[in-house]
Write a structure and sequence with these properties.
The protein is α+β, with helices and mostly antiparallel strands. Helix content is about 20%, strand content about 35%. The chain contains 3 helices and 10 strands; from the N terminus they run ααββββββαββββ. A hairpin with a 5-residue loop joins strand 2 and strand 3. The N terminus is likely disordered. The chain binds copper (II) ion (CU).
């Protein structure tokens, strides 16, 4: 299980590794795509993060190979984020965040949005299937703050 392996690697390494290096590993076991070239963006999709621990929309569809700009907006009063990854890796990430609350991190597959902010992820989805996304701030994923990108071949 990739999620378990990621978590185990983190525990083995302790907090010595730069968080970005660990988090950049999210999605390694499952091919979720790769950071996109902003010049290749075909579409912009807005996703609103709600203080009710829901994304709107929580289900989006893209074409395989498509590069999209996901703009994550936070109109609420508490911090949120959106991390792209396999569900296993997202759950492992959330578990790590519970152990290390307040950990600052940044990687191309995630956007942290404070109240009133909007931030973009430019991503190319290269494999048909499902890519998950979640808010890994402690308690949020567990409350249902998850969504899915359906990557279609046509
Ligand atoms: Cu959240």
């Amino acid at each position: 299980m990739t999620g378990k392996r990621t978590l185990a690697a983190f525990i083995a390494a302790g907090a010595m590794l730069a968080p970005a290096a660990i988090l950049a590993d999210a999605g390694h076991g499952v091919d979720i795509g790769n950071p996109g070239d902003p010049k290749q963006v075909a579409r912009t999709i807005e996703i609103v993060s709600g203080d009710d621990f829901r994304y709107r929309p929580s289900q989006i569809a893209v074409k395989r190979g498509e590069t999209v700009r996901l703009v994550v907006k936070n109109p609420g009063r508490i911090d949120h984020e959106l991390v792209l990854g396999s569900m296993d890796d997202l759950k492992a990430h959330a578990q790590m965040m519970r152990k290390h609350p307040g950990m600052e991190h940044d990687a191309p597959n995630q956007a942290m949005v404070r109240p009133g902010e909007a931030r973009a992820i430019v991503w190319q989805f290269t494999r048909a299937g499902t890519v998950g996304f979640a808010c890994t701030i402690p308690g949020h994923l567990e409350a249902g703050m998850v969504g899915e990108v359906q990557v279609r071949t046509r």
